[in-house]
Amino acid sequence: MIEIHDLYTGYSRDKPLLSGFNYNFDNKIYGILGESGCGKTTLLRTVAGLIKPLSGEIIIDNNPVTKASKNEVYMMHQNYTSFDWLNCLDNILIAKKVKGHIEPEDIEAAKKMLYLVGLNGNENKYPKQLSGGMKQRLALARTLFAKPKILLMDEPLSALDAETRSNMQLLIMDLHMLLDNTVIMVTHSESEAKIMCDEILKF
Predict the structure, then answer these.
(1) Count of CB atoms within 10 A of residue 16's CB?
(2) Pairwise pLDDT comparison (72 vs 200), residue with the higher score
(3) Nearest-CA neighbor of 60 among 20, 9, 23, 18?
(4) Coil, strand or helix: which one is 37?
(5) What's the CA gap between 98 and 42, in Å, rounded?
(6) Is the pLDDT of residue 78 over 80?
(7) Strands 73-76 and 199-202
(8) How far, in Å, are 23, 41, 44, 53, 119 from residue 75 at the CA level?
(9) pTM
(10) Which residues partner with 31 through β-bridges?
C-alpha cells in the first residue's frame, strides 16, 4: 500500500504543484486525469523517489520513501526511454542482467513479452530502428516483464493507434489481475481511464 500524507510537491516552495495531497493507493488500477502542468507527473516522480517532497510524507508498505533505489516502485516515463545500445530482447532483459545471471527461461519469458506487445520478430533490432509506437510498446514490455509490485505509468499508450492501444490496455489489466499489484496511470483520456481503472482521481 502507498500512503500519502499532507504532500506538498513541485519545484518551488512558493508555488507547489500539489498542496496538502492525501490518498491511500491499494492493489488497484488508478487513473489520474488533469490539465497539463497540474502536477500529475510530479506526483508519480515523487512517489517513485525521484523527487523529494517539499513537505509531507509518502509511505510504501510501512517504509517512508527516501530515494528511488530503496523501494519496489517501477516507473514508465512519458518519453518511454529505451537503452539504445541494446537490442529489443536485451532491453527487456536489462533488469535481470542488473540483478545477476540470465536463465534460459528468462529469455523465453522476454520473447513472450515481445510477442504480447506485438514486437515478435524484432528481437535483434535496436530502438533506433523502431517507430515511435513500437518504442512505446518496447518500453511497456520491459516494464511489465519486471512484474513490479507498484507500477507508475505516465501516458503509457499515447503513441499507439486505437486498435493497438485497446490491446495494450487489456494486457496491462490482465497482468494486473495476475500480479495483484498497484498501478497508478496518468492519462489524458477519460475514456481510457474508465475502461482500465478501478478509481479515477481528477486534478
Answers:
(1) 20
(2) 200
(3) 23
(4) coil
(5) 27
(6) no
(7) unpaired
(8) 19, 11, 8, 17, 21
(9) 0.89
(10) 185, 200
Among 130, 131, 86, smallest CA distance to 110 is for 86
Long-range contacts of 128-133 (CB under 8 A, 24+ apart): 128/84, 130/88, 132/159, 133/159, 133/160, 133/161, 133/164
Q: For position 70, what pLDDT does the model report?
A: 60
pLDDT above 90: residue 14: no
- For residue 78, how many other CB atoms are within 10 A of its CB? 16
* Distance in angstroms (rounded) separating the CA atoms of residues 187 and 44: 12
Q: Which of 153, 162, 152, 116 is nearest to 137 (CA)?
A: 116
Task: State whether the Cα torsion 59-64-65-69 is positive or negative.
Answer: negative
C-alpha cell at 123: 528481437
Q: Is the predicted pLDDT of residue 172 greater than 90, yes or no?
A: yes
Cα 151 to Cα 53: distance, rounded to the nearest angstrom: 19
pLDDT tens by residue, 18-73 = 999 999 999 999 999 988 888 899 999 999 999 999 999 999 988 888 776 666 78
Handedness of CA 107, 68, 65, 31 (dihedral sign): negative
Kindly state the helix (H) or strand (E) to which residue 12 belongs, with its residue range.
Answer: none
pLDDT of residue 156: 87
